[in-house]
Amino acid sequence: MPEDKEQIRKRASYKGQITAFSNYLNSLKVSSLAATEVNELQLRISRIESMYERYDEVQLSIECNTDNIDAQISERTDFESLYFKSLSLAKRILADCIKSDDVSSDGGSHSGNHKFVKLPTIQLPKFNGSYDNWLEFHDTFMSLIHSNDEIDDINKFHYLRASLEGPAAVVIQSIEFSAANYTVAWTILCDRYDNKRLLIQNHVTALFNIAPINKELSVNLKRLIDQINKNLRALESLGEPTKQWDTLLIHIITQKLDAKTYREWEESKGRLEKDTPITFDIFLMFLKNRADLIETLEMSNSGATNRLNSSIKYAPKVKAMVSVRDTGNKNGSAFSAKLCPKCKGDHKLSSCPQYLGLSNDVRLQLLPEYKVCFNCLNSGHYANHCKKPGCKICH
């Protein structure tokens, strides 16, 4: 049975790669490996480890299509012997380097009377081709990888490929993986995405397309502030005169506010002197203070609701409503009718500041406990016998 020449050429390529790896290991000066050489060794080991499965697939195909099986078994034995010896030697060298680094680090920490603290690894940012994230990715990658002279070009290329996703990865996909091509790949990527006009247009569009706020919540206002700051900082770094856009920016953002916040802003403007210029910084400070105030009220209402639910859960049940008119002591009944059932103050429940400060849902939950009329909030009768008119708005 004729042997597949293409498979034989592939096997020869794998044998050449493992031979080159063995020669590389023999050329290393193990006693004085630099940090970049250790990193390169790690990358080479990772590549060699993934190569065996491909070799085994090719060799198995050749063995199944040959008449001289003994020769092919000898070929496999020679390859595996060189492969495993080289890989074992590489891992031992790498382990010795890591061990020596740990010992030197421990020795330095003891001699300096300092404890060694392992800081968390900085994760490289991911870039998927979105112009929104280009400036952040570019500056971070430049700082950590591109401008780091201790990292050689082959490792920089490896980090670059690992950081790209989606359309961004396709841009440099066809470039051959080598140290000489790292600068080419980085230049092509910058030429594609470091387009000042497109970046400016993208961030301006993002300002106009900010989602409107439908409900006055602190989380919504804070999200709006973050989106404004992100796009304005990007535009400023691109050289746009954002400090001169105050009136336009205020108009754009106020159209995104809910009705209550917009009214508060108009009232806030009215309290300023007529000749005082209304800058965007003043408007942004108003949004920040408004978000803080709403967050404080939300936390307060949440705490009051939790306390109310707890009191309702453990409150004793009252079987009948006691009327103050049926008491024998007129003075006592008159005095008790004046006391507020919420705070025990000398006023009616309808004018109690603590009760009025609660939400409508919490008020409705409290009324059965106070045994008062749901219409006028006075004790002594029910709503179906109340003579006072109801709400003029919702009836």
UniProtKB/TrEMBL annotation:
The lineage of its organism: Eukaryota, Metazoa, Ecdysozoa, Arthropoda, Hexapoda. InterPro entries: DUF1759, Znf_CCHC. Keywords: Metal-binding, Zinc, Zinc-finger. Transmembrane segments: none annotated. Residues 373-388 form the CCHC-type domain. It comes from the Eukaryota. This is CCHC-type domain-containing protein. One of its GO terms (molecular function) is nucleic acid binding. Pfam families: DUF1759 (PF03564).
